[in-house]
Design goal:
Layout (H helix, E strand, L loop, with lengths): L1 H37 L6 E2 L13 E6 L7 H11 L5 E8 L3 H11 L5 E6 L7 H19 L5 E4 L10 H8 L5 E3 L2 E3 L8 H23 L10 E4 H13 L15 H11 L4 E3 L2 E2 L8 E3 L5 H23 L5 H10 L2 H24 L3 H6 L3 H29 L1 H33 L23
Parallel strand pairs: 1-10, 2-3, 2-5, 3-4, 6-9, 7-11
Antiparallel strand pairs: 5-8, 6-8
């Protein structure tokens, strides 16, 4: 079977070479992070006791777009109102007319608290998340006119988020010198899904403990996660005006035609000269000031969510944001958009492994001869193999640091599943992108949420 031998060799060289390229990229980030550690720039400072009880000096708005979120939105709203004692905050929740269950859950959770505003969305849902955010922005503008004063900042959250009590005061403190602030996101463990939901633990632990810290230190553009982030009010007004000037219409500062409007807005803030910060601090009790949430528990739901991320960041990001900016920005854009290529390389690596097993099973002479390494393949395989071990070590260390030894050990077993989800979502994202080129409209392909980290647990 000469064709299988040729396929094995080509797949092996291709996957080993590009795995090595990706590993070099990751090693550079690892090196920069270690330099920051040695210089003492990674240790999260602790907030003083009572910090979260301070009143805001000026009003602040929180936007929560919601579509078919009746299972979690009530807990989110109630927890936020209980966690934040500040009277100068107002939570705007977008509710669609054809989703009465979500609206009822919002109003029931608010218990008449004047800080809560359920905003009727004037179109049938789902539109897009950005469209919902823009309508919340217009509602804020109307309230500002009526009150005769503007808010100092807008905080973005999702319907399933568990907010931290200290975040509003922290946002105000940091926004005194910058225009955009992003806090860490922590994926909470789900008892019924230690593997699919659990792989988000590993990815966010490394991304928001290392990668975002490095990006912040390098001074490059910081993408918004869409949750646990705050944008100065004046910057949002400039973004709104910029979209009107650039022909984006007057719908608002968020791009309805973009699947990852949050990611894009972080880049747009940087390109208009805005200053951004990624902030890791701990409260007086030692807990990380972060947004906590449950992520998809089922394979299909995880693939759907990551399809939207890959489509919006890799494909739409290339089309809409291009490659301008500093060298650091271009490097980080390349890292952000490498998901489709990484999925192709992973698929080739798995195909190489399967092909190699088939050839080994054939036995001598064909099988053994085909598996005999050449100097180049030997070098690539050795380097990429060592790099893979290093990546697993990093995954284990960051997951252990954030979630303990059990989750750290699970992270090693979850790595192959994470790769399979990446491959499946990249394939689906490519199909969706090609469909968009043929005129398929952008829709809110939202993630289903059935549980909330702040919800009381049922006794066993």
């Amino acid at each position: 079977m000469p064709w299988l031998v040729s396929a094995y060799r080509e797949l092996t060289v291709f996957s080993a070479f590009w795995l090595l390229v990706g590993l070099i990229d990751d090693l550079l980030v690892d090196f920069l992070w270690l330099m920051l550690v040695l210089r003492g720039r990674v240790q999260a400072r602790c907030l003083p006791r009572g910090f979260e009880q301070r009143e805001l000096s000026a009003p602040m708005a929180v936007f929560i777009p919601a579509w078919c979120e009746s299972q979690v939105i009530g807990t989110t709203v109630q927890h936020a109102l209980d966690a934040w004692p500040q009277r100068k905050v107002r939570i705007y929740v977008g509710c669609y007319a054809n989703d009465p269950d979500t609206a009822r859950a919002v109003l029931a959770a608010g218990h008449g608290d004047p800080r809560l505003c359920a905003v009727p969305i004037g179109v049938a849902g789902p539109s897009t998340k950005a469209d919902c955010l823009n309508r919340l922005y217009r509602a804020l503008e109307r309230d500002e006119v009526a009150a005769g004063r503007s808010v100092q900042a807008v905080v973005l959250h999702d319907a399933e988020d568990m907010v931290h009590p200290a975040e509003l005061v922290l946002f105000e403190q940091v926004l005194a010198s910058v225009d955009f602030v992003q806090l860490p996101v922590r994926a909470e463990p789900l008892a019924g899904s230690p593997w699919v939901a659990g792989h988000y633990i590993d990815e966010f632990a490394e991304a928001h403990t290392k990668t975002m810290v490095v990006r912040d230190a390098l001074g490059g553009a910081l993408p918004a996660a869409g949750v646990g982030c705050a944008i100065a009010r004046s910057v949002l007004a400039r973004l709104d005006q910029q979209r009107q000037t650039d022909g984006g219409g007057s719908s608002g500062p968020f791009a309805p035609e973009c699947l990852t409007e949050d990611y894009e807005i972080g880049w747009r803030i940087a390109r208009m000269g805005g200053r951004s910060r990624f902030v890791r601090v701990r409260d007086a009790g030692g807990a990380l000031v972060a947004t906590r949430a449950h992520f998809p528990a089922h394979f299909a739901c995880a693939v759907r969510q990551k399809t939207r991320w890959t489509h919006g960041i890799a494909y739409q990001g290339w089309d809409r944001l291009g490659w301008s900016g500093t060298l650091v920005d271009r490097w980080m854009a390349l890292r952000d958009r490498r998901a489709p290529m990484a999925a192709l390389v992973l698929l080739a690596a798995y195909a190489s492994l399967v092909t190699g097993l088939i050839l080994a099973a054939v036995g001598p002479p064909a099988g053994i001869a085909a598996l005999a390494p050449t100097p180049w393949t030997d070098l690539f395989l050795l380097a990429s193999g060592a790099g893979l071990v290093w990546r697993l070590v990093c995954r284990f260390l960051f997951s252990t640091h954030e979630r303990g030894l059990v989750e750290g050990l699970r992270s090693l077993a979850r790595a192959p599943l994470s790769n399979v989800i990446a491959i499946a979502s990249a394939h689906r994202a490519l199909r969706a992108y090609l469909g968009s080129l043929r005129g398929t409209p952008t829709v809110w392909d939202k993630t289903r949420h059935d549980s909330h980290p702040a919800a009381p647990r049922s006794p066993r």
